[in-house]
Every structure is written in structure tokens, then in C-alpha cells.
Specification:
There is one protein chain. The chain is α+β, with helices and mostly antiparallel strands. Helices cover 36% and strands 23% of the residues. The protein is built from 20 helices and 22 strands. A hairpin with a 2-residue loop joins strand 20 (487-497) and strand 21 (500-514). Helix 9 (208-225) packs antiparallel against helix 20 (541-554).
């Protein structure tokens, strides 16, 4: 019996030690929490600015209103006042006050200062308010799919707001005061203020002046062509800074259609990053780059710049007829060199290149130019594109890939591939982040990341010169700017629905850059289902010219020749 009593005493003593030493701090916190109430102090969300520090996204001061049911003295009167100020249903407010299920209720968020001043005048017991922030987008619908938006409580839900949410959000503070056991503030309450820490500024590579120019140009072609949608990306080929990104139609970030999820999902989708399409002839830039590089490496299966291609309009591969877009009746497609083939956008020539290089070699270049994989852009939801697995490629597939069919890409993939093909052969990781400006003023800069080196500088220079010819005298003439070296390639691709060609539906595109001898600006224009005229040369190329001319004015770029 003595041993039993000693054993029980030891257990009780051990439990006491555990409660005091191990569990003590938690119990002390719980006790303190029971006798204290906190009102959150919302941290100011970080700014989003353009490359020059221009504010794209800021904050306006608003307030959140809270109610502690146990501290309310007159439920009916309180419900009447709150419902009148904040457009609430009185009976619903009364039910929440008398329900006794929760210790605190959020009455309203993002309330104006004027409404809070009226609230204060009523001196309602059990009702509190705290400052929070509402995002304010300086340019309404501009960059809407890129910037994204936040939830009502300030968390990033899409775009940059979501991707860099941890950097932007900061750390909330609180106002703490003592109460009695039912939550009513005590007469000699001690108030403790914990300061909120603001989020950091996210500075983008986007140049708002170039963005606005691109927005105007794309909105104009959207209306004039009657297209289903249009999109555009402008980047710096020397480091893959994203200078502008447009998707249209768009929506107002200051009036997000949250109640219509289908519309919101459609309009907020950044199609140039998240959607894939068959590129058509703009893809010939990649095929030509692969051929030039292989020829320089001494591959006898590649074609020299002076080689003359067969002028036939049709190729038959694996029993499948592959035709050129032109009937060759004008004689332009006869006796063509590679430069001529690019000028005329002749499909059979690029079929010959792809088949001659072979699957293994050609796929090495496709991989080197980033196809079939994400680019690594700092943005959620980037698509992989669609590339036939190398082990399953037939000759007829390879032939079509050579001129931009049987392959699907994202806009960002194609823009990056084209930039690497003409910038000296350097494929960088594209990025929207330029730097992070911390609350103490320190700046953390993003450093460009070189991912691949798909072609040599010499091959790149040769290709850029050929593509300058496309704009001077080929299918890209409508992008030509007198006195400036502009290069580019047009594209017109039929759309497919349920595995079949959709009659009368096309994607018109153009990828262009300048100056061609050392590109500083590259633009990809995509017009989805234009009505009437649908060739990329007629629909998309003039848009690139308009954007380039605006850039020339904005940056005061002098003529090169």
C-alpha cells in the first residue's frame, strides 16, 4: 500500500511538473487570450510598379467593421444601425448577435472613411473597426490578366498578385485590450498596439508607355478585324524582359466581375501564357535557324544559303499530300533559296529541311528552343505546349512540324524561341520581375538566367538578315518602317475543332523585331479568328509596325539608315 501511494504521488508530481514546465507557456497564452481581445491592423500591401517606378497597383485606405455579440447592449438598435450603414438585412444581423455561436463577426469589409465616421457617431457597444487596404489599379483594365486581383481580405488570387503574394502581403499587426470573461471591455482596459509591417514593392520589367501603345494597337485590330480575341507580347531579346503583354477583350481590375465566374475566368485568363495554338508559318523561323546552324556545323544534310529548292507546290510524304498555301502560278515560288522561301513562306521548302535533318536532329533544336516545356516565366498556369513524342513521330508529322503544323505552342514559347533565334543564339528565362524594393529601401534585382544556346551567333546573324528581307520585300512588307531595320515572319494557321479543320477559322500572326542587326525589341501579334481578310501579312504585320513606330517615338530612337 505504501508503494502504491508513493507511485500515485510520483504520477501526480510528474503531471504537476509537466503542466508547470512543459505546458505552462501554452496555458499562460490561453489564459491571456481569454481575457484579451484583438482587433487586426492590416498591413499595407506592397506596390506593383513598372520598370521606371510608375505605380501600376496601389492601395486606398478602407476599413473593416467587427461585432462582438457578447458586448452588444441593444441588439435590435445595433442591427438597425449596421444594416442601414452597410446595406445589410436587419434580421440576419440580429440572428448573428443573438446566436451566441461565435465570439466575433465581420460586419463589413472595405468600408469608406465616411461610413466609419457615421458609425462612430452612434457609439455602439460591441462594434469595432480597423483600417485595412483596398487595391487600386491605376490603369483599370490595362495589364489586367498580368497583374491579377486579390480577394476581399487582400490575398492574391491571380496574376502577379498571386505569384508574388508572400512578398506583397507584409505582416499584420493588432490592437489588443483586456475584457471580462464574456468579452466586454473592462473599465481600466490596457491597450497594446502591435504595428503592422508593410509588404515590399514588386517592380516589373513592363514599361507602361510601351504597354499602353500595345494596348491601343491590339484594341484597334480587335475592333477592325472582328476577331474572337487578340494578344500580344513585347520583349527585349537581349535579356527576355517582358516589356508589354496584352490580351483582349479585358476587364476592369477596379470592378472585377466576381459574381459571374464564367465571365471572370474567361477574361482573366492570360492566353499568351496559358493557351496553346498551332503557330503556322511563324514557326519557320525555328526550322530555318536549325538548318543554318547545321550547315555551319558541316552537316551535309542541311541546305546552304545558296541552295535552290525544287519549285513544286506539292510534296507527298507517307501517302499524305502536303501543299503550299500558294498555287505557285505567279512564279515567285520557283528556284528559291532559303531567303526566298522565307520571303514567300513556301511550305514545301521547310518540309524538305525538316525531313532532310531528320527527327533526332530536328527534335534537338525543338528542345533547345524550349518547345514541349515551360519557359519558366514567373507566372502561374504556364502551358507546356504540345509536341508529338519523338518516338512516335512519322515522316508526315515531321514534314508538317517544319512549317508550323502538327505542333502547338504558347505565345510566350514562340516569342522566346524567335528571340533566341535572332539575338545571337541566347535563350534566357523570360521574366516579369525586375526587382523587389524592400520596406527599408534596399533593392534586390533580378539577374537574367541563360537557359540554352540553341544556335551560334553566326547562324543567328544570318537568319536575322534573311528575316529583314521578309519585311523589306517578302510577306512582311506591311511591317516595314522607312529608315529602320525591321525583321519578321508572318503566319496564317487554320484552326482545328474536334480533330478536323474548322472551315473559315484562322489564327493570323506576326513575329517581328528591330533593329535586325542587334534586336532590342521583339513583338509577337496573334489575332484569333479575324473576319474577312485573315492572312497574317495583312492583319497582324501592320499591328507590329504600329507598335514599333510608337516605341520609336517613346524612346526617341533615331533612324539606323
Amino acid at each position: 500500500m505504501g508503494l502504491a501511494i508513493a507511485f500515485i504521488f510520483c504520477i501526480i508530481f510528474a503531471r504537476l511538473l509537466y503542466v508547470q514546465l512543459v505546458w505552462g507557456s501554452e496555458l499562460k497564452y490561453r489564459a491571456t487570450d481569454q481575457w484579451n481581445r484583438e482587433i487586426p491592423v492590416i498591413a499595407s500591401r506592397g506596390l506593383i510598379t513598372d520598370a521606371n517606378g510608375e505605380i501600376l497597383v496601389g492601395n486606398k485606405t478602407t476599413y473593416s467593421v467587427f461585432l462582438r455579440p457578447n458586448a452588444v447592449e441593444n441588439a435590435e438598435y445595433t442591427a438597425t444601425v449596421l444594416s442601414g450603414l452597410f446595406s445589410l438585412e436587419p434580421n440576419s444581423v440580429i440572428e448573428k448577435i443573438k446566436g451566441g455561436k461565435v465570439s466575433e463577426i465581420t460586419v463589413a469589409r472595405q468600408v469608406s472613411k465616411e461610413s466609419v465616421e457615421k458609425l462612430v457617431s452612434y457609439n455602439l457597444s460591441g462594434v469595432y473597426y480597423s483600417r485595412d487596404n483596398t487595391r487600386q489599379y491605376a490603369y483599370n483594365d490595362v495589364l489586367c490578366q498580368v497583374l491579377g486581383f486579390t480577394s476581399n481580405d487582400g490575398s492574391g488570387l491571380s496574376g502577379i498578385e498571386k505569384y508574388y503574394d508572400k512578398i506583397l502581403s507584409g505582416t499584420n499587426g493588432e490592437i489588443s485590450y483586456t475584457t471580462d470573461i464574456v468579452g466586454v471591455e473592462t473599465e481600466n482596459s490596457v491597450v497594446v498596439y502591435s504595428e503592422a509591417k508593410a509588404g515590399a514593392e514588386v517592380r516589373l520589367t513592363v514599361d507602361i508607355d510601351i504597354q499602353l501603345a500595345a494596348e491601343d494597337a491590339m484594341r484597334s485590330v480587335y475592333v477592325s478585324s472582328g476577331a474572337k480575341s487578340v494578344s500580344c507580347i513585347v520583349l527585349n531579346p537581349q535579356n527576355f524582359d517582358i516589356l508589354a503583354m496584352v490580351n483582349y477583350p479585358s476587364y476592369d481590375l477596379n470592378d472585377v466581375p466576381r459574381d459571374d465566374k464564367e465571365t471572370l475566368n474567361s477574361l482573366s485568363r492570360n492566353s499568351i501564357v496559358c493557351d496553346i495554338y498551332e503557330p503556322g508559318s511563324t514557326f519557320k523561323v525555328v526550322t530555318a535557324a536549325a538548318n543554318i546552324e547545321e550547315y555551319l556545323r558541316g552537316n551535309n544534310k542541311a541546305f546552304s544559303s545558296s541552295y535552290v529548292f525544287n519549285g513544286s507546290r506539292t510534296r507527298t510524304v507517307d501517302g499524305t499530300k502536303i501543299k503550299c498555301w500558294s498555287d505557285h502560278s505567279n512564279g515567285k515560288h520557283s528556284n528559291q533559296t532559303l531567303a526566298d522561301a522565307l520571303n514567300n513562306s513556301c511550305n514545301p521548302c521547310f518540309t524538305d529541311i525538316a525531313l532532310s535533318l531528320g527527327t533526332d536532329t530536328f527534335y534537338n533544336y525543338l528542345n533547345g528552343f524550349g518547345f514541349g516545356n515551360v519557359t519558366g516565366l514567373d507566372f502561374n498556369g504556364e502551358a507546356l505546349g504540345m509536341l508529338v513524342p519523338q518516338s512516335l513521330v512519322r515522316d508526315c508529322d515531321l514534314a508538317r512540324i517544319g512549317f508550323g503544323q502538327t505542333v502547338a505552342v504558347t505565345g510566350i514559347q514562340l516569342a522566346c524561341a524567335a528571340a533566341a533565334a535572332v539575338n545571337g543564339g541566347n535563350y534566357y528565362m523570360p521574366h516579369l520581375l525586375k526587382s523587389v524594393v524592400l520596406s527599408n529601401g534596399n533593392v534586390e534585382n533580378f539577374k537574367p538566367v541563360l537557359k540554352y544556346k540553341p544556335v551560334s551567333e553566326k547562324a543567328s546573324s544570318m537568319l536575322a538578315s534573311m528575316l529583314e528581307g521578309v519585311v523589306k520585300e517578302g510577306s512582311g512588307k506591311k511591317a516595314y518602317i522607312e529608315g529602320y531595320k525591321v525583321g519578321g515572319k508572318t503566319g496564317t494557321a487554320q484552326k482545328y475543332e474536334d480533330g478536323h479543320i474548322a472551315s473559315g477559322k484562322y489564327i493570323s500572326s506576326f513575329v517581328g523585331f528591330f533593329p535586325s542587326d542587334k534586336p532590342q525589341y521583339l513583338a509577337l501579334i496573334i489575332v484569333d479568328e479575324p473576319q474577312g481578310t485573315y492572312y497574317g501579312s495583312a492583319v497582324a504585320a501592320p499591328v507590329a509596325k504600329e507598335i514599333f513606330e510608337d516605341i520609336i517615338k517613346i524612346k526617341n530612337i533615331k533612324p539606323y539608315v
